[in-house]
Amino acid sequence: MRVSAIQFAISLGQTDANYDMVEKYIYAAAKEQADVIVLPEMWNVSFYPDDVWNLADDDGCRTKQFLADLASTLHVNIVGGSVAVRRGDKLYNTTYVVDRKGKLIASYDKVHLFTPGKEDAVFTPGEKINSFSLDGIPMASIICYDLRFCEWVRMAALTGAQMIFVPAAWPDPRCEHWQILNRARAIENQCFITAVNSCGEAGHMHFCGHSMIVDPWGNVLAQGDGTAQIVTAETDFSVVSDIRNRINVFKDRQSQLYNV
After folding, report:
1. Residues in Cβ contact with 118 at an 8 Å cutoff, skipping those fewer than 6 apart
2. Residue 100 forms beta bridges with which residues?
C-alpha cells in the first residue's frame, strides 16, 4: 500500500485558501499513485484562530463533500487529517475518513485536548476510538496530543489496527518528542504509524513538519523536513504479522493486572 502524507503550511483562518491548497496536494499525491492520502490536523483553519467558532465547518458539511468528491474522482482513500467542526453549540477537532468510492466510513473527535494551549476551553473532547478498514486493512486514527497517551493508542491497536494515523499540529520546540513518540507507538503496538504534521507559522506558533511513516519495527520508512512536501512510502502489511509472530506482545499481555 502506497501512503502519502501531505505536509504544508496552513494559512491561519484562511479557509478558502486552505481548501484550495489541499485540493492541489491531493491531486499531486494521486498522480504519484497513492493508495491513501493523509492530511494534517486542523487544515481548514490552522491551530487555531481567535474566531475559530465562526470559521468552523458547520457539521463538517463542506469538508465531507470536498473529501468525498476528491476521493471518488481520483479513486483514492483519504484520511482527512482534522478540521474545526461546529455541531450544535459545541466545537470539535474532527477527522473524516473516506474510501475510494467517496463514502464516509469513519469520523473521530479528538479526545485529549491540549490544555497548555487552552484547546480544552474552546473545543469539546470526543469519547470514542476511531477504527475502520481501507482496502481491507484494519486501521485506526488519533489526533496530535492523543499520541502522548499510550493507553489510548493501545486501545486503538487492540481493535486490530495494522496502521494508525496521527494527524498533528506539533510545534517546533518539541520536534524530538514527536519523532520519538511516533517510533515508540509503532514499536510497542507492532503496527505502522503514519504521522502527518503541518509546517510553517500560524500566529505565534511554528510547526516542525517532519511527517513520518514508521514500520512496526520502528524503522522510519520516510520522513519530511521542515518544509512543505509530500512524504510517501510503500507499506508491506506482512511485516505486521511477521513481528507479531516473532514477539507476540498482544498474546503475552497480562491484562487482568492492568487498571487503565
Report:
1. none
2. none
| Domains identified in the chain, total number | 1
| pLDDT of amino acid 245 | 95
- Please write the tens of the pLDDT for every residue from 209-243: 999 999 999 999 999 999 999 999 999 999 999 99
Domain carrying residue 121:
2-257
| Residue 191 known to be catalytic | no
Calpha distance 242→249 (Å, rounded): 12
Residue listed under C-alpha cell 520508512: 221
Instruction: Establish whether 32 is a catalytic residue.
Output: no
Catalytic option among 144, 191, 199, 208: 144
**Does 101 participate in catalysis according to the annotation?**
no
- pTM above threshold 0.90: yes
Instruction: Tell me the three cell numbers of residue 22.
Output: 489541499
The active-site residue, picked from 41, 119, 199, 208, is 41
Residue of 64, 110, 191, 199 marked catalytic: 110
CATH of the domain at 91: 3.60.110.10
How far, CA to CA in Å, does 163 sit from each of 30, 32, 133, 237?
A: 20, 21, 10, 9
